[in-house]
Amino acid sequence: MSNIEDSEASLPEIKADPISKCCEAVEVMALNTSRIELLSKNNFDTWSMQVEALLIKNDLWEYVNGSNLMPAETDTAAKSVWLKADRKARADLVLAIQPSELKQVRGCETSREVWLKLESIYASKGPARKATLLKQLMLQKLDEGDDVKEHIAKFFDAVDKLESMNVQINGDLLSIMLLYSLPSTYENFRCAIESRDELPTAEVLKIKIIEESEARKQSAGNTVIAMAAKSHVQDKQSRQKFIKSKREFRCFKCGFLGHKARFCSAKRDSDDHGKESNNSKHSAYSADETYAAYHSAVEEKFLEDIRGRRAWILDSGCTAHLCGDKYMFKMMKMSPKAKLNLASQQASADVRGKGSVHLSVIGADGQRVAEFQNTLFVPELRTNLISVAQITNKGYKVTFTKDGAFVSNADGKITLTADRKGDLYYVRESSECAYVQPKCSELLKWHYRMGHLNAADLTKLVKDGIVPASDVGDMKQLIQCEVCILGKMSALPFNRGKGPCSEPLKVIHSDVVGPFREESIGRARYFVTFIDDCTRWCEIYLLRQKSDVFEAFKLYQSFMERQTGLKIKCLQSDNGREYLNNDFDKYLSESGIARRLSVPRTPEQNGVAERMNRTLLDMTRCLLLQSGLSNCFWSEAVATACYVRNRCPSRALGGKSPYECLNKEKPNVKHFRSFGSKVMVLDKLPDKNKLAPRCDEGVFVGYPRETKSYRVWIPKAHKIICARDVRFVSEQQLFSIPTNNINDLLVPLEIPEENNGECRKFVDFTHSQIDDIRSNEPTTGADCQVEEIRRAPGRPKLMRMGNRGRPRKMFRCRVNSEPSQKTACQDSDNDSADDNDVFVGIAEISLRDALCGPEREEWSDALECEVMNIIKNDTWDIVTIVDNKNIVGCRFVLTNKYGPDGNIERRKARLVAKGCGQKYGINYTDTYAPVARLESIRLLLALSTHFNLTIWQFDVVSAYLNGTLSEKVFMRVPDNLYDILKRLQIKFNKTGDVGSKASKMMNEIDKGGNACRLKRALYGLKQAGRQWYAELKSKLISMGLKPTENESCLFHGYFEKNLVLLLVYVDDLLIASSEVKIIHKLKQKLLKYFEIKDIGRANYCLGLEIHQKDGTISLKQSGYIQALLKKFGMSQCNPVATPSELNMNFDKNDTINEACPYRELIGALMYMSVSARPDIANTVSRLAQFVANPTKCHWNAAKRVLRYLAGTANKGLLYRKTDLPLIGYADADWGGCTTDRRSYTGYVFLLSGAVISWKSQKQRTVALSSTEAEYVSLAESAKEAVYLRSLLNEIGLQKLADATIYVDNRGAQCLANDPVFHARTKHIDIKHHFVRECISAGLFSLKHVSTQEMIADVMTKPLARANHEKCLTGLGLSI
């Protein structure tokens, strides 16, 4: 800074042309701004002071602080001068800001705007900023070893910022906070300050703390031992006494105690260096020669952090280089009588030698080798020291800084670098170690040269004369080679076991095998083995999850103890959590069973169980390969393998079998047959045809324990039976079964417990958490059959058994007596086709059925159209990824698009991503779906009739594909994509945009592309709707349409002074305008951004039929009703006049009807009740309470609604122009529910002669009076009125927003108008008093109407025919 100031002060006065002056100004400005630290996120306080000084110096500050305002528009000359100066001030501000922060002031035109914007961002004075600074001030603590000055500066910086926000902190409080921010080592200092009569001010205390810190540093430097690397003298003396007491003989070679001359290392070292040294007999140092070494002050706590005996430290107090490791010397002369004097007069160390050390260090040229001559060998050093004095004597320069030090030569080139750690300067060494291998014997050298060959082979090479090693030395040095131990360490051998114990059940070995990739036919994924150590008898139990091991052990214990009459004494297993848990430990303790565990990752200690696992799995693989059965039969094969193995001789038992050792008799194996053999099973069903075959073909799969029979799988019936009347056709593989598509051959089933074969037990619970499906097929004779059972459509029923935990789910089942036939197209489908079939209920048509059915050409065209849209929108790139962790799946969804008459209009295919696989924060964050409320759709129709608007409907083709993704989303390549691309390639002849992109995708797939990197928002992604809405919203705003705050999917605007309304429902757009040409102009603008399908005048949307005629608009669902009647078989039913009986009471003792599709019917009726049929809302609301357990009377009541709809199918809401504003009716039926005596709320709101919003709902609390019930209903209607009023006001229709609500209860009206509280109303929840605020604020008016004129009465209870039709007329429902 001084050089810059001097150069600036010495600038001569220049008189030159304007160009020279401009150059001078630029130079001075650059000079000034170079002094200022650029603005960042954390330095606004200091930056603002510097910038203010700079601007004052340049006479520009008055433009920034606002004191010099812009002249009037009329004074052109003054305004030009002002703008020029203001631009200079703005330029100074911009040049003093970091480039990363310039985006904050983008758009600011004047210097004043720039300054105010920066202040609002970086100098916020709001409550949040104050709270942050106060929290920082109170929680700031000084850690041991940290800089005290930095801590105090940070503390007072926060104080200054708070004072700038007018936050004053009491002086004593500030001193106390500063005092207690110090660490515990300042406790004495803190006590001394607190013992004063008055606390010093914060400024005085700051000085005291700094002085105390400096004094502590100086004191620490004086008290620390000068020689940091010296070991404690007391430890040395005690060690020497111990050695002397143990060994009294002295070496006559080196004169030291503790060893003899033949083992003296000094002798070997002198021999090794004899050729290099001219004086190997006498020492280079006299006996009284001493060296003094002084170390700089070091804190004791850093002595623990030094990096061992090979670390080197730069030391300014040493007079010589010191090293404590003799193996680091390149050459060394021994000197046994030298002494090294330390700073303490009583401390000294022995110098054993002197030599050269080569150290690999880091310099300016990178790695280099530095030689340190005349280095003293001091074995007792704790670290190595480099003398600064010796370095400078060689002409080098040593420079110490705060963070490190460096040594440079005469040319200024850095040759050595040191890093500061604590208060010590460690030399920076290269990764290649400068370690010199210890001097060793010839045998050890050849051991290194031969790649650490073992001692026996190396000795043989020496004896054979191949290795010329004259000094063989001690073989122990090869055994103790640390490199060999590190590189060749292996597990220690295990001792051979003692053999089986003498008592059955004394020790039980156990282990778990699994999980298997394929579930067994009983949905098991694991099996556990229990082996008796004495008899080697093995039992297996199939498990669906590992946690079932505990239950399996209890079953095993109960069975074996009852069969043998003995008790289990010990259980041996590994450390799996299935064995080590609280329940298992508690049970073993209570049963008195000991536990033996293997060492972690040491399966050899559980060898009996591990060997049994291998034996069973080997036999299982052989059985499956022999039989040709699918892998899902592994459970049958394992059970058979265990059954056979228990009857085979064992070497551990001396040739006996486990069966013989357990039962004291030889096993009978005459009934054994080959697993997978083809068999014929006698058909004993009583209802079989007289001319039908007498037997069925089957496959032998095992032996049951309970019966003398065989386990046979019947492929035709997809079931396993236990049969005695079996004829084995052949024991060779005659029955061929495909193994690549087992899903076509069997379905998940569970064998009943009474039919499980030996070792085929399923570990089950009394109330299992597994949703199991059991067969209800009765057994006949010795045959126990299991039918094929499939899960039927529909939601499961919750079975509450009265126990703790979640209720069980009971699914509807479908039993197939005939085997399913495999179509030709199934052979080409992969597993994904089966996955798609799971979603048939949602997709309506499965991909397999569509491509194999008579309409396959139409569906193929639909698939091609979908992929073509994806290609046009550049939706993805085909990439290859290795990690499939965050990849999402996808599938094609096929649906039929129906018209208003219920006929199919077209086939539609949609590629949908499986967004359920996405993870929050990884491949998605926020979600939103642009779905307009049904109330908004009806409001659009009402406003269209009021202003005589025409409603036009558009469909955005592949709307979601227009949204751009900001996250990285990878999706699996869709199935059948390659075939579709190939057809598109042929169709477009590889030309055009679609053809070329299709060819490119095929090439990427051929190269191994397995994933799609999505660039567009594909359907099914969680963020797809949000991205599409954001794209559409931005385009509509640019076109002049503004979204409403209360309904984000409703846009409004004025074009050519005509009101335009646009409603968004996902990809459907409804545009209403009085001029059709305006609609077409909007269409042309939308076509610039999206592909739009012009449907024309709106007549069918979301299942709603819209008819626009003669200034009226009707809304009905006649086609939907006819389809519903046809679906539930009610097309020819007798119509009724009302949807419900007057007294709709349900018998609680009525039988439950599980077979009827009650839930599906109620779901369809609910959609109608909220769309266009408010007349059935109350009845459907009552029936919807019983979807979980419907009875026969509920089903009959639901069918009555269908009968009512059959007679009123053509009824709908008719909107016509009226001059009335928004009108509402609120009513309640007090105690209308006979089950819990709660009341029903009902309200309706009318506009343009028909209802646009309604509700029928049971109240959440029991009302104690009719007034309370009416008041609660009024509060609900008030919320809807406020919403509709706000929506109309936002569009600019204040006249229509003048709402009125009618009630038929005087008490509720008075309670809403006046704050009356008494015993009858004081308990009413405070949220219902919201209606009072609305009335007092004038949001709507409240009026009374007689009960006969209350049209909302139909929303609260069933009515007679006359009253019902009267209410419908008031609601605007007509034919």
Helix content: 25-40%
Shape: extended
Note the total helix count: 40
User: How many domains, in number, for the residues?
Assistant: 7
Name given to the CATH homologous superfamily of the largest domain: Ribonuclease H-like superfamily/Ribonuclease H
Spatial order of strands in the largest sheet: 16-15-12-13-14-22
Q: How does the major sheet shape up?
A: 6 strands, mixed
Cα(first) to Cα(last) distance is: 92 Å
Main structural class:
alpha+beta
Kindly state the number of beta strands: 48
CATH architecture grouping of the largest domain: 2-Layer Sandwich
Stated plainly, the CATH topology of the largest domain is called: Nucleotidyltransferase, domain 5
CATH class label of the largest domain: Alpha Beta
DSSP strand (E) fraction? 15-25%
Q: Spans of 5+ residues with little confidence (pLDDT < 50)?
A: 1-31, 221-248, 267-307, 432-439, 733-789, 814-843
- Averaged pLDDT, please? 77
Radius of gyration: 46 Å
